[in-house]
Amino acid sequence: MSKKNKPNRPKARRPRGFEDKSADIIRAEQKLIASAFSVYDSHGFEPLQTPAFEYADVLGKFLPDEDRPNTGVFALRDDDEQWMSLRYDLTAPLARFVAENFDGLAKPYRRYQAGSVFRNEKPGPGRFREFVQCDADSVGAPGAAADAEMVMLAADVMRAVGLKDGQYQVRVNNRKLLDGILESTGVPNNEEGAIQRMQVLRAIDKLDRLGPDGVSALLGEGREDDSGDYTEGAKLNPDAIKAVLGFTTASSGDRGQIIIDLEKLVGMSERGQAGIQELRDIDNILSAVGISSDRAAFDTSIVRGLGYYTGPVFEVELLTDIKDKKGRPVRIGSIGGGGRYDDLVSRFRGQAVPATGFSFGVSRLLSALERLDALEAVTQPPVFITVFDRALLGEYFKMAEDIRGAGLRAEVYVGTGNITKQMKYADRRGVQLAIIMGEDEMSKGEVTVKDLYLGAEMAKAISSNEEWKSARPAQETIARDQLIAALKERIKI
Amino acid sequence: MSKKNKPNRPKARRPRGFEDKSADIIRAEQKLIASAFSVYDSHGFEPLQTPAFEYADVLGKFLPDEDRPNTGVFALRDDDEQWMSLRYDLTAPLARFVAENFDGLAKPYRRYQAGSVFRNEKPGPGRFREFVQCDADSVGAPGAAADAEMVMLAADVMRAVGLKDGQYQVRVNNRKLLDGILESTGVPNNEEGAIQRMQVLRAIDKLDRLGPDGVSALLGEGREDDSGDYTEGAKLNPDAIKAVLGFTTASSGDRGQIIIDLEKLVGMSERGQAGIQELRDIDNILSAVGISSDRAAFDTSIVRGLGYYTGPVFEVELLTDIKDKKGRPVRIGSIGGGGRYDDLVSRFRGQAVPATGFSFGVSRLLSALERLDALEAVTQPPVFITVFDRALLGEYFKMAEDIRGAGLRAEVYVGTGNITKQMKYADRRGVQLAIIMGEDEMSKGEVTVKDLYLGAEMAKAISSNEEWKSARPAQETIARDQLIAALKERIKI
User: Fold this and answer.
1) Residues of A in contact with B348 (CB under 8 A)
2) Alpha-carbon torsion, ordered B73, B77, B81, B87, to 10 deg
């Protein structure tokens, strides 16, 4: 392009909050998604893909209330003036899909899906405006068997992605238990008590950060934080506060024992009793398939922020004995979760369509696996064929094909640099084995194989260990018909 | 949800031009992408993922020239007032990526990528506003070796996705040849001749539809079509028209022979001679790796619509002997293509950054494979475990785990229907084998296995072939410790 264009030259840059993914990350994420998919698939779930765009009113929670709705979602107006939004999760589009195709679907409809979701939020470190979620859901199954299966899937996916038992725990609660406890303390179990129930959930969710006293204040009159901000409380009476706090801290140890403890706390509330029965059903199935409390526990402190959950909820917690610089255990925390949401599809249909699901963020799980050293290298670098003599290009490509035929990756240098530049390129690419063949060697039926890893080691050891160097040279001449065997013998990854 | 909400209930519907993909399509597309990736990977290409959004000025061709640019792309204004667009292909984002990370990349940088691209266009049958492209590109390699590798990749991907040789052909041309011919007939090989060259390309692209006379008119003064619309011509003189038409219809048969023929046509033009040498280099490499003219031919009628190509260009044509109702051969046509585009990255850098690539549309290739009967079924339906007795749910889930452990898919019914409903569900799911176990059978260590495929066959044959029915019953009682073996023996897919 001519120089006169220079002032108008665009700057190559990404919109903030969006990322390019490197080869290693992509390979690791693909492997992780494939592992999860294979678990879902083995349970008879089927894949679904919905589009990136949905109508804004269909997504629901972010209805356009101004001319250009821009809070949380990316939205734009279509030619026909309807607002479209990029999906912010995979659950709302699933609800649309099921409602749209209701009669054509065999129910329970069980699907899995992974894909980019979009959040129009302020980006931060590790917080992107486009990221990949991986979900499995059952729609049309009201019973606890479907919830138990979700917990199984969560626990088995953690194993499938390479975690050892003890490095993760699925923690299950049931919204109905708290509903029951609140009901017996006077919070009505209907629309009227909805706001109060949500306030209680939000208060419990802060147990980790504020401790029992802080939560107690939020359950009662309210609480002023260090900055002087005042949060209105749920206005529970002291007995109710005691009951709620007693509930959230009730669980530890064995699932069977917790059920016995909880039965006492829940009392006579019908909804609470129904919640207990569901936990019993879940425990029954998990125990039958050999999933112990180590892998999937009951934990009454689990809340899940979203308002749409209606029954069993769970989170997957990653456990670690990594310590930070001050000797405190590093908390990786929840990498995903799910639960029952019986009202999402009925938004469209006006009839009950029970549903339950599990979702995790792919990058979040991947970076947790990295911190737990649970990632394996997933690919070998290609064997690199240098272009020593341009006239032999055809021969080099033929050699590469032979190597590929033996199941190895192989790359012919397609740039224009000389042999020094080519070796620099190979080095940056992380190549282990490079092949050099000139006219002379070709006529003798030979090639030179250079081991760049060994060469680098030797460069380090060269002063201290001259003998070792001569014993296993980093560069060897090999008969061409022995090449594949020689490569396989030397390959490190 | 209560009835009073009914008037506000949203309608479950998709924005027009967007599709939900069914399980079979997804599995087939994933397999197809995996096959292509494995070819790219074996050549030492590395995966890259860029975000869905790019700044509009970075994408280039669709600069916002009005308040809300909406021609071809989906665009919206970010919080900082910059226009962002959803990518319309994977090449423009690659150019941005390379320019942004230029010094950090080992070059040639060779990457592959598959992902959704978005076109804000009028949707039609088989024409979607979101669809998946699969690309491989080399950036930083000026020589014909990189182009030859692209042609190899295209031919090998067609094999990898299940096509037989003879069902596809990569057809290669070189823009430089036509540039050379035009130069020798007086069209200057610089900016001055750019518009005229583009008119010539567009005219040649219509050869199929208009025939030599129509194209001849478009190369000359111009042409009025049946509807009375007049298209201005490229204003070539009669000798030039003859030369161009002679060129576009020159190629047939063997690559080596075509090069000899073309040398005469191109004459003394330096650019034309350079184009010939590139074809020679490509032929040399393809011949060395055993890719015959059947798989990759030279074809001077190949144009590629895009203006940014600068050298070798190619298309992948699917061939078929399928005839339509009138006995005419069904033309499937081009399912992808590529070529050299040496100016795209230099848009950002102001220095030459040569590049070449190959791209195909995943759905387009898939539907072509379907028409060629080149698709295999890719998954088995799950073994279906009925819930005959709710009290045995744990046992059913345990049985499913055992079946999964043997590498089969297995599904426990998690809905609430009775056994009749469950069998209907199994039927709609395409299940072959269903398992029934009640309290009695369990105590005897037995299960019943029902073969739904066999049952359906028998239902058809029942009047004509009573004996066959009794010889191989569709329902059998099997000892539980023989279950896995019995399932494997019966499984059809």
Assistant:
1) 9-12
2) -40
Conformation bin of residue A226: beta by default, left when phi > 0, alpha when psi is -120 to 50? alpha
Q: Which tokens go with A212?
A: 């029992």
**Residue among B20, B58, B145 minimizing CB distance to A49:** B20
Return d(Cα B340, Cα B329) in angstroms, integer.
32
| DSSP letter assigned to residue A193 | G
- Predicted pLDDT of residue A63: 33
The residue in chain A having the minimum alpha-carbon distance to the alpha carbon of residue B55 is: A15
pLDDT in tens, B389-423: 999 999 999 999 999 999 999 999 999 999 999 99
Q: Quick one: pLDDT band at residue B325, thresholds 50, 70, 90?
A: confident
Are B41 and A1 a contacting pair at CB < 8 A?
Answer: no
Confidence of residue B79 (pLDDT cuts 50, 70, 90): confident
User: From the list A51, A74, A350, which residue is nearest B130 (CB)?
Assistant: A51
Is the Cβ pair B9, A288 closer than 8 Å?
A: no
Distances (CA, A) of B429 to A151, A402, B379, B432: 23, 44, 13, 9
Rounded to two decimals, the ipTM of the complex is 0.90
Q: Can you give the pTM of this predicted structure?
A: 0.91
Closest-CA residue to A105 (of B405, B297, B87, B23): B23
pLDDT tens per residue, range B10-28: 999 999 999 999 999 999 9
Q: Which residue has the tokens 């069914």?
A: B22
User: Inter-chain contact A284–B393, Cβ cutoff 8 Å?
Assistant: yes
Cβ distance B208 to B198 under 8 Å? no
Q: How far is B408 from chain A (nearest CA, A)?
A: 7
Q: Are A183 and A309 in contact (CB under 8 A)?
A: no
What pLDDT digit, counting tens, does each position of A97-116 carry? Answer: 999 999 999 999 999 999 99
Q: Which residues, listed in sequence order, are joined to residue A338 by a DSSP beta bridge? A: A314, A358
Domains of chain A: 23-371 (3.30.930.10), 383-491 (3.40.50.800)
Work out the widest C-alpha separation in chain A, in whole angstroms: 94
Nearest Cα of chain A lies from the Cα of B322 at a distance, in angstroms, of 31
The single residue listed with the structure tokens 């037989």 is B164
